[in-house]
Every structure is written in structure tokens, then in C-alpha cells.
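Attaching the record inline, Q. Sequence:
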Amino acid sequence: MRQGLKHPVAIMGLPIDSLTEDEAVDALEQLILSGGTHQVCTTNVDIWLNALADAHLHRIVAGASLVLADGMPLVWISKWLGCPLPARVTGVDLVPRLAELSARKGYGIFLLGAGPGVAERTARLLESKFPGVRIVGTCAPDAASLSQIERSGILQMIHQARPDVLLVALGNPKQEKWTWTHRKQLQVPVAIGVGGSFDILVGDMQRAPRWLQQCGLEWAMRTVQEPLRLIPRYVRDLFGLARSVPLAVLAAWLQRPYRGPSQVTMAAAPKLLHVHVQGGLCAERAEAMAEATKSCIENGLTMVVHLEAARQTTVAGFGVLLDARRELLEAGLSLALAGLRWKTRFALYAWRLRALFDEWQPAVSRGHSLSVERPANLATGGEQARTRFHSEQEKPAA
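Structure, as predicted:
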């Protein structure tokens, strides 16, 4: 559970947390102290496009405990969609911030990935800059070692080091899929995909000046240094944005502001909790949705969110639903949507969210007889008809 953390914003199909760099470091420390294992993704346009093309990767990122915007285009798009993210939070900036946190509080850090010798050089650099930092291990596995993970001893090495933070620099999508696949064996409180951060920190790749980063032109300097690798990637990113962003902005524009009364009501049924959103599905519904999510987890119920009475849906509102979806999946449950109007369907399509939600349909709409029960309405004390849930529950990515 992300207790005390802000809910994410649904930016182009990804639940990106609305955090500054300082808030992100605080959130990571909360995850370290909260128990369990947590995967953190730093996301840019390239990862976004990879996720849209790979359903497995999309579900991994959507299910991460924390997703941070590691690209200025995502920050710009959030503004155009009406729910601006406060800042870009990059992996290369997080690594020294976590080293500084380790030096103050003793958290152990393990560096995994990058080229031969790069992780060790990064460790020495961090130890020189942050006296007292606890680097508990480094490893730069080759492709053969990763493909034979059980035999290579990598998992055993990490497990014996008992780090609080695992920094995985294997590149996307390898680092996200590898972390997801082995998260239970690793038993590390926080694992973060940091891409090429180690290479930049040790100087093998020169980083753009701060003013160029703030202008969103860091990609230009990187292209000069690696033209053969990055020119095709950035051309692909540009075409991906050109195809998707206008439609997303149009969907946001169609969701005209709603200033009337809004509320969330709940009605329980066997194995289901019906959640009815009336008025606006926006950030202000976070508390009510958190209550509904908690009720579902405590009672083992599938959540069905009814949106037929929703007059406005925002990317912040869908971020609230994605947060509920993630918590329910962690508990082995699921979330489905019902009562979708055409504007809501268009928003789900344009904002690249359709693949993440099942749609609940009453049995009568599929030509079957309607099974009706009469459970107590949790919100009003009245009664509500209950119909069968036919949508297949989503299984967590393996």
C-alpha cells in the first residue's frame, strides 16, 4: 500500500506519480520502510512506446509502486492534458540523491548492470562524493549470465548482500522485465530501473548542461555522441508522439469542466463491490476510491466502477483508478469499468488506457438470463440489483 503517497496521473497510458525530485526521494524512503518488495520505473518517451507495443511491459509499468517522469515530453503532455506534473525526475539524478540518503541513514545500495567495470567505477565515485554511503555490492552481468540467471549466482549475490535499494542499469525493457520476473527471489525492498545512469555518472557519456535539460533538448547532445543508436530511436519517438498526442489533447478538451455536485457511492454484492461515480472523476475522488479499494481488499471483492453518471473524467481521475487497480492486483483481485459513455470510451482510447481495464457487462446484454440478488447498499442503506461478472480477471504479469 502506498500510504501517504500522492496518487499518480494517467499520462498516455502510464500512471506517472506527480512528484518533485525531493518528494520522489521521500517516497522511495517510505517504500524502503514500508516492508515488502517494490518496483520503481523511470519512464521516458521510448519506454512509453515500448510499453504500448508490448502488453507485458505495459502491465509491468502500470503495476509498479512508483513511476517517475524521466523525459520532458511527458511533463509537457501532462500540461496539455490539464494535470501538469511538477517536474522531471530522472534516474541519473536519483542515483546520487539515494547515495546521499544512504550516507545519512545507512541504507544499503547494490549496483547491477552497465558495461564491464562501470558499476565498480560508479561505486567508487559515489563513495568519494558521499562518505559513509553503503554500497553493498556491484555486478555487471553479460547476456549469457542474465539468460541463465539461476546458474550464474547473480540472485544469490544480491540476496546475500541484503541491499535496501537495487539499482538496475540493464536498459529498457530488459531491466523492467528482469526485475519483475525475479522480484520475489530478490527480496529487495526497492528496485529501480536507471537505464544508462551509471555511464553518465562516471563520464563515459557526457550529460547536457542544466539549461539544455530544462529546455528539453538533452536528447540533441546525446544524439551527437551516439548517432547510429539514437537517431532511429528519436525518429521513432517523434512519430509516436505525432500520432498520439493530438488525439489525447482532443479527448482532454472534450471533457469540459464540471462544477456540479459529485459523489462516490458503494453497493456490495457477493464477490463484487459496485462503485458509482457521479459528477466528476478527478483527483478529488481519491479518498473515496481509497476507501472502496480498502474495503475490496479486506473482503476479497472485485471492484466494478460505474461511470454512466460521470460528467467529466480527467487523467488525474484515471490515475486514481490506476492506483486502485494496482493495489487490487497485488491482492489478487481486479477492477473493471461499467457504464462507459462515448466520451469516456474515446478518452480511454486516446489516453492509451483501454488495455489496462476490463469492461463489466451484465449477463442480459450477452443473451443470458439475468441473475439478480439484493445486497445492502453500503452508501444509502437501500438495495441494488446485482448482475453476474463475466469479464475475465486480469492475471498479474509473470
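The chain has 17 helices and 14 strands. The two ends are 21 Å apart (CA to CA).

More tomorrow.
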